[in-house]
Amino acid sequence: MAEVNILRELQHPCIVRYFDRFIDKKNLKIFIIMEYCQGGDLQQIIKRCAKSNDHIQEEFIWKIFSQVVSGLHFCHRRQDATQINRGESNTTNKAQESNPQKILHRDLKPGNIFLDSANDAKLGDFGLARVMNQDSMFAHTHVGTPYYMSPELINEQKYNEKSDIWSLGCIIYEMAALRPPFKAQNHLSLAMKIKAGKFDRIPDRYSEDLWRVIEWMLN
Questions:
Q1: Residue 209 is among the residues annotated as catalytic for this protein
Q2: N or C, fewer C-beta in 10 Å, the chain?
Q3: Residues 41, 107, 125, 164: which is the catalytic one?
Q4: What pLDDT does residue 56 have?
């Protein structure tokens, strides 16, 4: 139900659209009716390219990057947009809404970025998402998929929307290199690599601009 409540608020072209939900009380199940994404997810594309020893075109990587950033910006700065659209002149109301009500995705990974029939990216699976109220600057609960966790999460520290940006950096890196930037045989070794923050450059076929953007996100 928490996921449904979040999804109802997220009407954006780069987020999988929520339509309705119904509850099977007898079996204690909830069914969520959502936009159909014919193109599958990014994980399928990455696996297919790795298996065939192919690569993903840089133009497509930039497209996915810009669309996911657009969806994340809407989540992270949702109330800012509401305030601007209202154009309120009441200074008291403005002061009350000065802090955006952020939504942190908290589980960004290739399998949660879906593609429609035009291969446009849609953020999905907000089951671990967290709404940050006006008084909260950081979240504390440590959830997510290990390969895409930020150093804050690995260290069990407080974190904010920057953790989503770190996860996106891991995803864009994986689209280019066909493997995550940090990989290990066990959780402890993975944690040490993430905290060290060292990773190889993406293949030379990709531009310096793409590499620079990845470095920014993984910083």
A1: no
A2: N
A3: 107
A4: 96
